[in-house]
Amino acid sequence: MAENHEMDRQQGKMTIGEGQMFKPDDDSESESESESESDISPKAKSRVLGDEDTPSRSFLFYEDIVHVEDDVWDLYFDGASNNMGCGIGVLIISPRGEHVPVSIKLDFAVTNNDAEYEACLLGLQSANKLGVMKLTVHGDSSLVINQVTGSWKIKSSSLAPYQAKIEELKKLFEEVRYVYLPREENQFADALSKLAALINILDHMDSLPLCVERRSSPAYINDVDDAKESEAEPWYASIVRFKEAGEYPADLDTRGKRALRMLSAQFVKTNDGQLYKKTAQGVLLRCVDKTTSEKVMEEVHDGECGSHMNSHMLVRKIMRLGYYWTTMETDCRRYVRHCHNCQIFANIQHLYQKRIERAFNKKVKPRGINEGDLVLKSVRALLPVDPRGKFKPNWAGPYLVKKILTGGAVCLTDLDGNDFSNPTNLDQLKKYYP
Predict the structure, then answer these.
(1) Residues pairing with 178 in the sheet
(2) Using alpha carbons only, how large is the chain's radius of gyration in Å?
(3) Which residues is 424 bridged to in the sheet?
(4) Rounded mean pLDDT, 163-169
(5) What is the DSSP letter of 8?
(6) Does one domain contain both 231 and 205?
(7) pTM above the 0.70 mark?
(8) Which pLDDT score is estimated for 222?
């Protein structure tokens, strides 16, 4: 079997190569037969299925994998054969949790059972090139697992050479154990095999690179979701320039340009130069910068007509008033959380409510109160006469946590430095956000 793959651990790059059918005759030896274990140098061991004479044709470059002889590695294999093509996939997992994916497209017709055997052989050869000595092989083909373990007899003459080759490779390991697992638990190897079967590799190419990257934020330009805009450059500046002159930011690649085109299609620019966000209902919302958005939240939330609504309602009300910016939900949630009046007038949970909450949230790690934190204290005792009536605050403060005693008691002091005469229970406090 000829392999041609390459992988970059940092960017998750992998190569899908072309494979040739395994031939059991003596005139055509596989790659694993041409190199003995003693001939594999450390450099070759770090390059899975790599050819020492042609290092550029190695399908995996994984320098960080360190082999430990006493540890057991895991191998998952799967094969796919359909009207779109044939492919095999292998996933090798080191004892440290490092994943080594392998995917090969077969340019010859095979049955599903043949493809499963091809995948199993590929996995054993790959593990051997890594220097693995103890291996647990996982597969979702009951036929392959039971035949290689000797539970079932091989009746098909086409599968006998595969069985003989597996027995030969098994001698290169100290320990090989086969385990059957359901198909739904073998999804990674299944995806690799189907990907290789479906993909089209041109005749002049031996392999096709596949890059899987990690991205922590949407592909918006100019850090739209970070809301780190300068006064002269609002978050929608790139959208305006694109709609006016079709200009792209200089640092955008092809993927970023496509994201900008798709994003710009959701906005409308009027003759007066103002940019509007077009909703699914066709309503135009005026796009505002960071400074204007702060003023809008303040006026809507706690202005003359503000009702100190929660963050969800605040976002909806701002949109009904015709304003929009990309980080509305995050900004409104932060604004409401730090609102002083919203904190001191928040509802006090009754004892039975707290018991129910504890029963359902036993596995939830509570947000603790530490010494030096600002807290609010629940107002439980009713004054004989309170002119505010039912509109009085439910929480008093903020106060400073001076010391936390054993048993859930806390010593508080006000902002003027006056200590409370008696300790306060933790269940009567909540954290205050200035």
Answers:
(1) 137
(2) 33
(3) 410
(4) 92
(5) B
(6) no
(7) no
(8) 47
